């Protein structure tokens, strides 16, 4: 995980997807010499595909699924790199005229990729993004043009240990705001358990987890010094100060905070839908999930997670490269293959009809549908300006958690970050 010092890296460091939104500002023009469109080209014998999933090795189900989308007479060569490395290498490859046919980018990277003139528009590449929910497509809509298409999305929710809840006499379904959540955590701790786990680690992963509290307070991403933003910081800082959350939250990533929840000692855990299947299969205790509450509302907006399949700008043989991208991306997000794509990546599809099929096959997804459909994009409002906002928020979170409930320290952390 990168440090506060590199603002550009912060925007590129989303670990899960964590990953990954309506039109936003920013954008650039195609790279010099770029031309062609998919309709004027034909697919080639070798198609190159870059993704940020090195955990899905050669021969894995994901690897086989991607390669099965090769058009007749073509073979897909797949390369997997960590997301930041992929973005950096894509930048170099486009500049040198050696870009892959298809790349997969985390959704917060889309404005920067467009601003850097790395991506062809959907119109140019022949990519069809119809049927995709507007909130999930948003990171790829810049200056009135659409770039790429999202596979699907993950989201954040509030998991709870049913055994701990019963022992504390807490009904999580009756939590409708922050006051209700705090009252529930207090009862859990009074009954002998621990309170809540979450990730406050420096960088985009911690920012991703903080955004529901920030938005739930009515704060804006680019107003980290506002009273609303400070109140969100005070909420999580108080959890540390009261001993309700572990002090390790300041460095815990989402996997580490989930592991703490799995000890059975904690009542609540803020974490992602990618753990939903594991939660359902947990044999040590029953796990439930409710939406993350807002300050005065039962449901706070959460950030969309997930990646976009995109067509990088090509400076040679462009029409054929775009035809390759159109064919493979269409295969991955259409028909029966679309459901498989989302399931293999642990996402709910960006298309309502495919999501419905996923829920019909696995009711573990049911409570997540409304959360994802109400999620909002990190970069939708700010575009490439999200990079700076994310850095400021991360700095504020770190200061607030280290303040451990001290109101003066929390406010100073947010005010200082706003001026940085």
Computed structural class: alpha/beta
- Name the average pLDDT: 91
Distance between the termini: 20 Å
Portion in beta strands: 5-15%
Shape: globular
Q: Strand order within the widest sheet?
A: 2-1-3-12-6
Poorly predicted spans: 1-33
Number of strands: 13
Summed up, the helix count is: 18
What is the helical fraction, as a range of percent?
Answer: 40-55%
Rg calculated over all Cα atoms: 21 Å
**Most strands sheet:** 5 strands, mixed
Walk me through what this model shows:
- This protein is 42% helix and 12% strand.
- It has 18 helices and 13 strands.
- The longest helix has 18 residues.
- The radius of gyration is 21 Å and the shape is globular.
What are the key terms here?
420 residues, alpha/beta, five-stranded mixed β-sheet, 42% helix, disordered N terminus
What is the compact description of this entry?
The chain has helices at residues 7-11, 61-67, 83-95, 110-115, 122-125, 134-137, 162-168, 178-190, 204-216, 227-241, 254-262, 276-281, 318-333, 335-345, 352-361, 366-373, 386-403, 407-418, and strands at 46-51, 75-80, 102-106, 141-142, 145-146, 149-150, 152-153, 156-161, 194-197, 266-272, 287-290, 307-310, 348-349.
Give the topology.
Elements: H1 7-11, E1 46-51, H2 61-67, E2 75-80, H3 83-95, E3 102-106, H4 110-115, H5 122-125, H6 134-137, E4 141-142, E5 145-146, E6 149-150, E7 152-153, E8 156-161, H7 162-168, H8 178-190, E9 194-197, H9 204-216, H10 227-241, H11 254-262, E10 266-272, H12 276-281, E11 287-290, E12 307-310, H13 318-333, H14 335-345, E13 348-349, H15 352-361, H16 366-373, H17 386-403, H18 407-418
Parallel strand pairs: 1-2, 1-3, 9-10
Antiparallel strand pairs: 3-12, 4-5, 6-12, 7-13, 8-10, 8-11
Helix pairs in contact: 7-8, 9-10, 9-17, 10-17, 10-18, 17-18
